[in-house]
Amino acid sequence: MQLRPLLLKAGATAITLGATLLSALYVTAHVKNPSAPLRPSVLNISASVQPSNVQPVTSTYAS
Amino acid sequence: MGTSCSLFAAGLSTIELLKAEFWVRALAARLTRFDERSELARFNRSAGAWVPVSAELEALLRESLRAHEVSGGLVNVAVLPSMLAVGYTRPLSHGPTAAALEAVHPAPLLPSVLEVELGRALLASGVGIDLGGIAKGWMADRLSERLGANVLVNLGGDLRARGDGPAGAGWPVSLGDATILLSGHGAATSSVLRRRWGDGLHHLIDPRTGRPASSGLVEVSVVAAAAVDAEIVAKTALIGGPELAPTFCAAHADAWRLVPA
Fold first, then answer.
1. What ipTM, to 2 d.p.?
2. How far does B79 lie from chain A, in Å, by closest CA?
């Protein structure tokens, strides 16, 4: 009867190792692309610039 | 200047605003490459000879050299041959001309082809420069100095704000889809989304290739200490791409917005 726990442990170990191996294969096949675009657009503001809800008077977009 | 310009000022007379407009128009006429009679066009034809230059052109040439240094060469005004090759041979309001990209080549390093001394300058033969955004930013900064303590100048999207604005908290300007308050700052946006035509053609040249920039960023907006600084940082970040832009902007800008492709 001690065989069943051993089989269960072996099975769990095999599944764990298999999942680890598959994960490693997936990660190495999908290497991070340093040129990948940032998403979404990112606005960074330092302390010297304040955001506002006031209607803007103009824009940096040239026409 | 081939683009829209706006002046906002507190406490200025109409005469002073008209003088400011005249100053912009007169200087823009001297700095345009589209008029063969302009000072810039004549400088582009100087073919390696030392020629006298006005104080304004001298200042802009020095600013161009500074931009080249700060940007690590990514902002390089010696890209005129490439601009002509992509069809930007006349004001875009007249439409681009046919592109001929076969002969484009990387731009020369600016310090190797441009020398500036007091009152004179030398441009190597076969090289052409376009002052474009550098001129807009520099002019916005100079004009704001002339107009007084509470003013906002917008020359083709290059902004310079001084003073506390209309309500005492700064000048509210649009930076992409956000509104921010500027006081003592400059701002600019570099974009490949607006002035574009054909198959991937637009006006922002990557000097490393001589071709329209394709970096993974399509638009960068920047707030910096001055309009010309914002122009330089925005263009550097856009051409440099998403690997360079965050670090470069963090080092040189007070606010920045990056739009990916």
1. 0.85
2. 21
Tens digits of residue pLDDT in B222-256: 999 999 999 999 999 999 999 999 999 999 999 99
Report CB contact under 8 Å: B158, A60: yes
Out of A41, A43, A55, name the one closest to residue B260 (CB).
Answer: A41
Query: What residue segments make up the domains of chain B, in order of their start?
Result: 5-260
Contact B4 A36 (CB under 8 A): no
User: Is A32 touching B (CB cutoff 8 A)?
Assistant: no
A46: phi then psi, degrees, rounded to nearest 5: -85, 175
Q: What's the CATH class of domain B5-260?
A: alpha beta
Identify which of B31, B55, B65 has the alpha carbon closest to the alpha carbon of residue B118: B55
Q: Tell whether B89 lies on the interface with A, counting CB pairs under 8 A.
A: no
Report chain B's mean pLDDT, rounded to a whole number: 94
CA–CA dist B152, B187 (Å, integer): 11
Contact at 8 Å (CB) between B39 and B52? no
Q: How far B170 CA lies from chain A's nearest CA (Å)?
A: 9
pLDDT value of residue B10: 82
CA distance B215 to B179: 26
By CA distance, what is B245's nearest residue in A?
A38
pTM: 0.85
Q: Please state, in angstroms and as integers, the Cα–Cα distance from residue A34 to each residue in A31, B36, B215, B244, following that order.
A: 9, 44, 12, 11
The minimal CB distance from A60 to the residues B187, B217, B243 is found for B187
CB-based contact B23:B153 (threshold 8 Å): no
